[in-house]
Design brief:
The chain is mostly helical. The protein is built from six helices and no strands. It is elongated and about 45 Å long.
Length: 107
């Protein structure tokens, strides 16, 4: 189990989806046996503060590419979420995308 998690982390780090600091913290968390439930509750706030729009993985503003890098969910998944939220939640996806475009800085 730990070996699979470490292999996945190494692959993400090798692909550039995890910085050296993120890789070190995630590796320590896996080795300490911490799960998402036992992780530090301040960490999501810090992750949001590190959120940046992507310059490389972008169609419009790089919001989905930046979210993909921060969360591990592929950019096409985020694009699908925004489209579905726009269609089925009264335009909420478009509003959320626009707000992220405005308030999240570019990398």
């Amino acid at each position: 189990m730990f070996a699979d998690d470490l292999d996945r982390l190494a692959a993400l780090h090798g692909n550039g989806k995890l910085s050296d600091e993120e890789f070190t913290r995630a590796k320590a968390r896996v080795l300490d046996g911490k799960t998402a439930e036992t992780a530090d509750p301040v960490e999501p706030v810090a992750a949001f503060n590190r959120l940046r729009r992507s310059s490389a993985n972008r169609w419009f503003a790089g919001v989905c590419g930046g979210l993909a890098r921060s969360t591990g969910l592929e950019a096409w998944g985020w694009r699908l979420i925004f489209v579905l939220a726009t269609l089925f939640a009264g335009g909420l996806g478009l509003l959320a995308y626009a707000l992220l475009w405005i308030f999240v800085p570019r990398d």
